[in-house]
Amino acid sequence: MDSQFGIANVWTQGDFVTRAVAIILIGMSLVSWIVIILKALDIYKYRKHARAANDFWHSEDFSAGLAKLGTDQGNPFRHLALEGREATAHHRKSSAHLHDALDVSDWVTRCLRNCINEFTARLQGGLAILASVGSTAPFIGLFGTVWGIYHALVAIGTSGQSTIDKVAGPIGEALIMTALGLAVAIPAVLGYNALVRGNKSILNNLNSFAHDMHAYFVTGARVNVQNDGESAKVLPLKKGA
């Protein structure tokens, strides 16, 4: 064959539409990989925070437990503990407000839930980009293929040469756009699924920690249910400032 298949030939022989499609796909690939890497680093960081949160309950008082959570302002477990402490103190000191109709349990629950919802929204940021790339990249690549085949057939018809070596080159280069679309979409879909699983694990840990914090601020102790689900013991933790 006179022509070699490759992105370089698609770029040199294609028109502005083909080049625009290639640029769009390459840009989508770069954006999706940036999102995957950044979100994966976040999940790794949050998992470290989750392990530190397990040590929180082995502290002598709340202040010591808070110190074990570190000073990272982005630590959701630390933020949850501070939010619960502030909610409890606010409920005790406030009077003649609308929220006084709620008991301390309901008030702390609402505050902790709002904190978790804010973190969930931040945790899921960027996943819509991966979902969009994974669902649209194959069709953008297919559009580039159809456009390239159309112009290849027009060029072949104009030249009057329809031998296999004249047809295979242009059409094969056009089909590369489909492969490029799949190469962009597959990592985005796999990355999306992996990040969703990682986010779910982090949220499960955060919800468990919030449940324990709620029990601590309401009753003064963390309720630890055993693995068999048949018994539970109360783990006291002194309330500190």
From TrEMBL:
Principal location class: membrane
Membrane-topology descriptor: Multi-pass membrane protein
Subcellular location(s) per record: Cell inner membrane; Membrane
Positions of transmembrane segments: 20-41, 127-154, 174-195
Entry-linked InterPro entries: ExbB/TolQ_transport, MotA_ExbB_proton_chnl
A Pfam family: MotA_ExbB
Domain MotA/TolQ/ExbB proton channel: from-to ranges: 100-206
Domain of life: Bacteria
Keyword set, alphabetical order: Cell inner membrane, Cell membrane, Membrane, Protein transport, Transmembrane, Transmembrane helix, Transport
Family under the similarity heading: Belongs to the exbB/tolQ family.
Subunit structure: The accessory proteins ExbB and ExbD seem to form a complex with TonB.
Function: Involved in the TonB-dependent energy-dependent transport of various receptor-bound substrates. Protects ExbD from proteolytic degradation and functionally stabilizes TonB.
Protein name: Biopolymer transport protein ExbB
Originating organism: Acidovorax bellezanensis
